[in-house]
Design a protein that fits this description.
Layout: H1 20-42, H2 50-59, H3 62-77, H4 81-102, H5 105-115, H6 118-121, H7 125-140, H8 147-177, E1 180-182, H9 192-204, E2 210-212, H10 216-225, H11 229-240, H12 251-267, H13 273-278, H14 286-319, H15 328-343, H16 356-371, E3 374-377, E4 388-393, E5 399-406, E6 418-423, E7 434-439, H17 455-472, H18 493-499, H19 505-508, H20 523-531, H21 537-556, H22 565-574, H23 592-595, H24 607-625, H25 630-641, H26 649-657, H27 664-669
Parallel strand pairs: 5-7
Antiparallel strand pairs: 1-2, 3-4, 4-5, 6-7
Helix pairs in contact: 1-2, 1-3, 1-4, 3-4, 4-8, 5-7, 8-12, 14-21, 17-18, 18-24, 21-22, 25-26
């Protein structure tokens, strides 16, 4: 046992020594250890105190959580059949343990007993909030249910963990299974960067030709630039039908997941899963989230319809009055041509100005100016040779966090971009730095050329670093309320606000430099970029609203096992699509945000737009007071980044802005207010 690195994880995680055979041995041991901690809370004799009850619960299972986070992370970034088997073996055990704690009537009674003590009445505001949120959580998760319903709820939680893990693995495997080799004459329209990447990908496989995959950089290049509509169609259908093939079919899993979520909500006394999930978020219930989505859709629909009419008219001007109606695999292609024609702007022209390392250096300098932090390279070993590490120092010069970055796609790594953490630093007593990570699937380097990014990829880096700042600069005395442990319709504010600096000339000049000459973006190109910023803004918004609307519909209105879910979701999303969706459209089968974890963004995808309203409004203060204004930055750090969930999110926003959010800020930023 002493040889198992998962049993003794400190701040320096020995990723190279962690093997699949360590996983189950360590997790079983750590569950037993956490069980003893749990029993010690129940066995307290005499008066209950914060230290022996609520504080002990805050610390319960820390070693188990740390080990499980590391294993789950490795399964998502360097999976192997052996690691996946080990992870799948421990997942039900870990889920069952935490479900048992949440359902413990004895622990619930102990917490209520502590709440009635004189000490509890004198708690600090943060600890008092923690006590109330904990009591609410126990009630909401079933601690007051009779034994037979608790048993069923525990079984539901365990099964949901298994199903959602399998869903996520199917998406990863299905994405990795697709590859398309093209010959040179089939590459018409593709920019040089996409050709280089595809050629390098083929050579890495020992093949001739140009290799394309469903990873984001490859897929988006094909859909945006490739002249051949038949190949675009082939790739579009492959992407939007991932995880529907035999052996990796997520469709039956989704119905079971939805049925179990609905059953869980009913068991707990809620009308549907959305009400259960949203009670603790800013929206409070499903009806509010639905109304929010509908209101935005109504505001944007006239602009959306006009944009689509203009795009079809543009195609007719190119190809004649009898040009066919746009298909889904045509939209990005003709939209890019229209953007070039209207704004004389080609996104590829920006790529040479965004070498990854310089983007990161500029991001760190920008955050130093605005928030007073310092970021320096560290020497910590990661889980892959491409992984790098950094140390972050707060405005007082204190080492407050280390983080890893892992930026490029791999076939053993899941898609998308995300921030996560291994350690939430201690604040109630002994200080311990935070330990976090950022992963992405950005354009990789080609040959001797550095990784040259699109502007959207630059925004992605800034977005995820906003999440990281939220965790790394957290200064909350209760670990469970620290960092990004906030309501999910608030968690995107610190991330999305960071994207705004990617559009400001003064900020871009910190890092947007030609990788060969060091020259900044020419002013003419910057102006074209700015003019094109709001191009098809309504379509971009309606795409997000499609995801949020179908999410809420599945978790409020749909009856599982009583209809064709793919058809049901396709009909909903069709109202938000600029072109008719194919009959076999099955995007929901790979929508990992909703079904890749037991809760995740389920019934909460509206959060992105909700937080976008907050970030557009909050950034207006930076625009008014100076985008590098250190006082504004300190206020944002003090009232938002450092506070975690120590106060109501609506109050935190008011503390920073001095008022409630103004929803018109988003329309103003997208150029549609007038």
């Amino acid at each position: 046992m002493t040889e198992n690195p998962l049993l003794d994880l400190g701040f320096e995680i020995p990723f190279d020594r962690i093997k699949p055979e360590h996983v189950e041995e360590a997790i079983v041991t750590l569950i037993a250890e956490a069980q003893q901690e749990f029993e010690a809370i129940l066995a307290v004799r005499g008066e209950r105190t914060y230290a022996n009850t609520l504080g002990a619960l805050d610390r319960l299972g820390e070693r188990l959580q740390r080990a499980f986070r590391v294993v789950a992370h490795l399964e998502s970034v360097r999976t192997t059949p052996e690691l996946r088997q080990a992870y799948n073996a421990i997942l039900p055990q870990v889920t069952a343990f935490y479900s048992k704690i949440q359902l413990s009537s004895e622990l619930y009674e102990a917490l209520k007993a502590y709440a009635s003590t004189p000490e509890a009445q004198r708690l600090s505001p943060t600890k008092r909030r923690f006590l109330q949120l904990t009591l609410d959580s126990f009630r909401r998760e079933g601690a007051e249910l009779p034994p037979e319903k608790k048993a069923r709820l525990e079984a539901i939680n365990t099964r949901l963990a298994e199903l959602t893990s399998k869903y996520s693995q199917n998406v990863l495997d299905s994405t990795a299974a697709f590859e398309l080799y093209l010959e040179e004459h089939q590459l018409s329209g593709l920019p040089h960067s996409a050709r280089q990447a595809a050629r390098q990908s083929a050579k890495a496989k020992g093949k001739e030709g140009w290799r394309f995959t469903l990873q984001a950089p490859s897929y988006l290049a094909l859909m945006t630039y490739l002249d051949d509509p038949d190949i675009r169609k082939q790739v579009y259908l492959a992407y939007n039908n991932r995880a529907t093939e035999e052996g990796r079919d997520n469709r039956p899993l989704i119905d079971e997941i939805l049925a179990l979520r609905q059953e869980k909500a009913k068991l707990l006394g809620y009308a549907h899963f959305a009400d259960l999930v949203l009670e603790e978020r800013m929206a409070k219930n499903g009806a509010t989230a639905v109304a929010f989505e509908r209101d935005l859709a109504e505001r944007y629909r006239p602009y959306f319809e006009r944009e689509n009419e203009e795009l079809q008219a543009f195609r007719r001007r190119l190809e004649g009055p009898h040009a066919p109606a746009l298909e889904p695999w045509d939209v990005a292609y003709y939209a890019e041509k229209q953007r070039r024609a209207v704004y004389d702007f080609d996104e590829e022209a920006l790529r040479p100005y965004f070498p990854l390392e310089r983007v990161l250096e500029g991001l760190f300098e920008l955050c130093g100016r605005v928030f007073g932090i310092r970021v320096e390279p560290a020497q910590a070993e990661g889980w892959h040779p491409e992984v790098k590490s950094y140390d972050l120092y707060d405005p007082q010069g204190r080492f407050t966090a280390r983080f890893y970055t892992d930026w490029f796609p791999r076939e053993d790594k899941r898609g998308g971009a995300w921030m996560n953490y291994f350690i939430t630093g201690e604040r109630d007593g002994v200080f311990e730095p935070h330990l976090a990570l950022i992963c992405g699937n950005l354009t990789p380097p080609v040959g001797d050329q550095p990784a040259l990014l699109t502007h959207r990829e630059v925004e992605t880096i800034f977005h995820e670093f906003g999440h990281l700042l939220h965790h790394a600069l957290s200064n909350v005395e209760v670990k469970s309320l620290a960092g990004t442990n906030v309501p999910w319709d608030f968690v995107e504010l610190p991330s999305q606000i960071m994207e705004n600096w990617c559009w400001e000339r003064a900020a871009l000049d910190l890092f947007a430099r030609h990788y060969q000459t060091g020259d900044p973006i020419p002013d003419e190109l910057f102006q074209r970029m700015q003019r094109a910023r709001t191009y098809r803004a309504a379509n971009n918004t309606m795409r997000q609203l499609a995801f949020g609307t179908v999410d809420l519909a599945m978790h409020i209105d749909y009856t599982p096992h009583n209809g064709d879910l793919m058809r049901y979701t396709r009909q909903i999303m069709a109202a938000f699509s600029p072109a008719p969706l194919p009959e076999d459209y099955a995007f929901i089968a790979s929508f990992s945000h909703l079904f890749g974890s037991p809760v995740g963004y389920a019934a909460g995808y509206y959060s992105y737009k909700w937080a976008e309203v907050l970030d557009a409004d909050a950034f207006s203060r930076f625009q008014a007071e100076g985008i590098f204004n250190p006082q504004t930055g300190r206020d944002f750090l003090e009232h938002i980044l450092s506070k975690g969930n120590s106060d109501d999110p609506a109050q935190l926003f008011r503390n920073f802005m001095g008022r409630d959010p103004n929803p018109e800020a988003l329309l103003r930023r997208t150029g549609l207010l007038d």
